[in-house]
């Protein structure tokens, strides 16, 4: 049995998406900037994608940019806004548990004269609004907070943070990295006072190599890519037509049945977490006391005391179960997860933590099978440890 | 501009009646290395030397960058991109520099004999093309192999020298230590060459039997394999993996290292042994401080068993005295005593830094330092024994008597064979 529980790393592409993309690549392969009919046909796909996504987010089509992925969206949002707002101030606020695409861009901006405040999180991986309020200064040009954390699945109070920022300094821009939440939650940037929002294609059963950045009308961005002036000069380069169309199609499919799917995901998460908590010495991360409903529907972070996460990962792999230790983007450089550290997870559990992430393809049967395998592996692995 | 390479070899030259065997092996290895390169070649023996003729030349190809006859050592480990397209001088030289047995590579220009005037023109053009700076001393060394050529060797050399001095007044003759030694050989064609690019030396792989390398993901063992292969020994390898404690990536890393080795040593037969059960059994039954030593003793036994089945005549390890607890003199003695086959340890007197430098030179270092755990490190004790007593170790191995033979047999039977680097 093959059970793929690493959907926060990447997801299986919907067959409808692959079909559409094949058609675009093999038949409607024109350059949307070309004057002839082939180009016009390609442009139609871009328009269609823009319309779909703007309806989902309840924004205007002109407020959407397509990028090469979540990383580029985050880079363009942060660097683009900071460089454009240089004269207004030099202070940026973000959190300690952001994705490296945000943290490294902040490090770059720090090296270039900006000041960055990194908000701490509580034991469940959530920022406190008081901390945000205290960090805000008249110099603060930008706040960037992720919606759902990729490693532990904690959910940040985006709407509350948005309202707070708007109240304290209406000129401060608010960016949200929604790579993990897009396709899992209804997100309306305008209602939430969000000025920029990043999303990615391959986390929502779309293709890799394509991302989305919502940029509200009032935001002035400085481009970070230069070239032919596509996408209003903000993101030069021939548009990735199959990718963009694929992303929009995937989003359309997900949002078409979102409520049922999310409810089902919470059911699976409940089943799984109840199952693992029967094992002694297990700690569940990122689920607050108020209940599972206040954490992400699809991410489970579990620490198995006395077992090295890498070993359990490979042992599960032998049973056909694919999970993740830390986030996939950093698993090649094994180091304790920054998010787990920021949450105050005890040292010995840092390297014993696995992430199980579900998708609409995940079934109850798969969860049962996974639990069974974990039950039989944990005692075996605990017997052989480094003495 | 060059039309061939003259291959110089050092040690083969002093072989006696077996010399042809070494030369044939060298030709075989040269052909293997050139498969990776674009262009077409003919490799042949002539007058006791080996030539690589370039059958087509890339348009506008010049090799002025190599004018000083030196190519930086860093290109040594790089595998050329693949056998695509046209001949490329640098690509071909890089490939030849991976062939053990070659001590020097001389790029040669062949020219037809169309009279002395024409030869002077060709030689003068050659010097101008190859050496951007001609303010150097030179000597012409002529060899008249075809005796019906009108000028004898001495006359040819001095007449050419005169013509060169006339064309390039900035050049000076120095017959004792010339900066440029210009060779002119008159055969059915006339050969012109003056540069020698150093080769890796050693002896052609396959001329000295075969050995089994214990290959881990570390820095040392690939270098050890390189050094033994350099002496003409074909290399097979054995890797011990311990899933789920070691990952698929750790195994891929070893395959990559074997591929780097195959760049010099020809195809490597890599035997992958699943060591988990043996390791866990030792872990359960033996004192923890002796785990590594006992584990290594079983690795040696298994390696020797495979070596015996595959016509290997020795084992090769990357050990160096005192590097870690399992490589002290007593530990080496303890691991050594389980083998009847000779165990070659070419790095035995090397410092770590020297091994690292060698790994960088042969291009395995970057792969070796990828951070995947291998089976030697997973259960390692905090304080492993550094002076194991062979008697005690043997006694503790008695604890394993019940199941170990069956486990070893199962590991041998279940081994996976990966052939790396076959073209």
Structural summary, described in words:
The complex is a heterodimer of chains A (about 375) and B (about 425). Chain A is an alpha/beta fold and about 375 residues long. Chain A has helices spanning about 15-25, 35-55, 70-85, 100-110, 130-135, 160-170, 240-255, 260-275, 310-320, 340, 345-350, 365-385; strands at about 5, 65, 90-95, 115-120, 140-145, 175, 195-200, 210-215, 280-285, 300-305, 320, 355. Chain A folds into two domains: about 5-10 and about 255-385, Alpha-Beta Complex (Aspartate Aminotransferase, domain 1); about 15-255, Aspartate Aminotransferase, domain 2 (3-Layer(aba) Sandwich). Chain A is built from twelve helices and twelve strands. A seven-stranded mixed sheet of chain A has the order 2-8-7-6-5-3-4, with helices on both faces. The two termini of chain A are about 35 Å apart. Chain B has two domains: about 5-200, VC0802-like; about 210-420, HUPs (Rossmann fold, 3-Layer(aba) Sandwich). In chain B, helix 5 (about 220-230) packs across helix 10 (about 350-360) and helix 7 (about 275-285) runs antiparallel to helix 8. At the A-B interface, helix 9 of A face helix 7 of B.
Tell how many strands the DSSP assignment of chain A holds: 12
Instruction: Give the topology string of chain A: H per helix, E per strand.
Output: EHHEHEHEHEHEEEHHEEHEHHEH
Q: Please identify the structural class of chain A as seen in this structure.
A: alpha/beta
Can you tell me the CATH topology of the largest domain in chain B? Rossmann fold
Question: What is the spatial order of strands in the main beta sheet of chain A?
Answer: 2-8-7-6-5-3-4
The CATH fourth-level homologous superfamily of the largest domain in chain B: HUPs
In the CATH hierarchy, the architecture of the largest domain in chain B is 3-Layer(aba) Sandwich
Radius of gyration of chain A: 21 Å
Biggest interface reads:
A-B, 14 and 17 residues
> How far from one another are the termini of chain B?
29 Å
Overall pLDDT level of chain B: 89
What sort of overall outline of chain A do the alpha carbons produce when their principal axes are compared?
A: globular
Give the CATH level 1 class of the largest domain in chain A: Alpha Beta
Largest sheet of chain B: 9 strands, mixed
């Amino acid at each position: 049995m093959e059970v793929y529980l690493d959907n926060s790393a990447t997801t299986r592409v919907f067959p409808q998406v692959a079909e559409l993309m094949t058609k675009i690549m093999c038949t409607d392969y024109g350059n949307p900037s070309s004057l002839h009919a082939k180009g016009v046909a390609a442009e139609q796909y871009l328009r269609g994608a823009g319309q779909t996504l703007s309806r989902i987010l309840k924004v205007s089509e002109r407020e959407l940019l397509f990028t090469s992925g979540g990383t580029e969206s985050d880079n363009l949002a942060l660097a683009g806004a900071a460089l454009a707002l240089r004269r207004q101030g030099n202070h940026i606020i973000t959190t300690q548990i952001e994705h490296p695409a945000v943290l490294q861009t902040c490090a770059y901006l720090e090296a270039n004269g900006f000041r960055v405040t990194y908000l701490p999180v509580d034991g469940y991986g959530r920022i406190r609004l008081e901390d945000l309020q205290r960090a805000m200064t008249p110099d603060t040009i930008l706040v960037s907070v992720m919606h759902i954390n990729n490693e532990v699945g904690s959910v940040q109070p985006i709407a509350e943070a948005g309202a707070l920022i708007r109240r304290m300094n209406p000129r401060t821009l608010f960016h949200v990295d929604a790579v993990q939440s897009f396709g899992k939650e209804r997100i309306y940037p305008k209602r939430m006072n969000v000025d920029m929002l990043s999303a990615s294609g391959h986390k929502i059963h779309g293709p890799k190599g394509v991302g989305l950045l919502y940029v509200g009308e009032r935001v002035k961005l400085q481009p970070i890519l230069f070239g032919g002036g596509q996408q209003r000069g903000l993101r030069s380069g021939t548009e990735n037509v199959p990718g963009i169309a694929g992303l929009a199609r995937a989003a359309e499919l997900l949002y078409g049945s979102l409520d049922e799917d999310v409810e089902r995901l919470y059911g699976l998460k409940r089943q799984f977490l109840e199952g693992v908590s029967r094992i002694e010495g297990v700690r569940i991360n990122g689920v607050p006391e108020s209940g599972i409903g206040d954490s992400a529907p699809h991410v489970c972070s579990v620490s198995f005391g006395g077992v090295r996460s890498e070993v359990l990962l490979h042992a599960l792999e032998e049973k056909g179960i694919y999970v993740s230790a830390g986030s996939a983007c950093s698993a090649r450089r094994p180091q304790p997860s920054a998010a787990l550290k920021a949450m105050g997870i005890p040292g010995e559990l840092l390297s014993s933590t696995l992430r199980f992430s579900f998708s609409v393809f995940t079934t109850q049967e798969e969860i049962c099978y996974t639990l069974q395998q974990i039950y039989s592996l944990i005692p075996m692995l605990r017997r052989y440890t480094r003495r | 501009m060059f039309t061939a390479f003259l291959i110089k070899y050092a040690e083969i030259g002093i072989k006696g009646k077996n010399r042809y065997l070494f030369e044939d092996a060298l030709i075989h290895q040269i052909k293997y290395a050139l498969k990776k390169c674009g262009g077409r070649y003919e490799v042949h023996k002539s007058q006791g030397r080996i030539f690589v003729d370039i059958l087509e030349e890339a348009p506008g190809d010049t090799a002025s960058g190599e004018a000083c006859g030196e190519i930086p050592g860093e290109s040594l480990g790089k595998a050329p991109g693949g056998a695509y397209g046209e001949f490329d001088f640098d690509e071909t030289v890089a490939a030849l520099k991976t062939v053990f047995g070659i001590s020097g590579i001389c790029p040669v220009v062949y020219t037809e004999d169309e009279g002395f005037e024409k030869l002077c023109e060709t030689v003068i053009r050659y010097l101008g093309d190859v050496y951007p700076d001609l303010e150097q001393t030179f000597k012409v060394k002529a060899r008249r192999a075809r005796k019906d050529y009108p000028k004898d060797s001495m006359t040819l050399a001095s007449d050419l020298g005169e013509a060169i001095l006339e064309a390039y007044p900035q050049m000076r003759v120095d017959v004792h230590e010339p900066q440029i030694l210009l060779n002119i050989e008159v055969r059915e064609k006339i050969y012109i060459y003056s540069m020698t690019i150093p080769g890796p030396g050693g002896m052609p792989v396959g001329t000295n039997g075969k050995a089994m390398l214990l290959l881990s993901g570390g820095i040392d063992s690939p270098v050890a394999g390189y050094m033994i292969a350099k002496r003409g020994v074909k290399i097979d390898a054995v890797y011990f993996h311990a899933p789920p404690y070691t990952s698929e990536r750790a195994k891929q890393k070893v395959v990559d290292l074997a591929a780097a080795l195959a760049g010099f040593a020809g195809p490597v037969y890599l035997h992958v042994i699943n060591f988990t059960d043996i390791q866990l059994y030792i872990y359960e039954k033996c004192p923890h401080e002796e785990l590594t030593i006992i584990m290594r003793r079983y690795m040696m036994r298994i390696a020797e068993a495979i070596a015996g089945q595959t016509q290997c005549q020795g084992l090769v390890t990357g050990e160096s005295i005192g590097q870690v607890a399992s490589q002290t003199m007593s530990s080496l003695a303890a691991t050594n005593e389980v083998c009847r086959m000779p165990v070659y340890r070419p790095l035995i007197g090397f410092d770590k830094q020297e091994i690292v430098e060698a790994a960088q030179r042969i291009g395995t270092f970057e792969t070796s330092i990828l951070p995947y755990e291998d089976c030697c490190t997973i259960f390692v004790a905090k304080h492993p024994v550094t002076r194991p007593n062979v008697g005690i170790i043997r006694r503790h191995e008695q604890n394993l008597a019940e199941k170990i033979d069956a486990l070893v047999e199962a590991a041998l039977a279940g081994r996976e064979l990966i052939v790396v680097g076959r073209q």
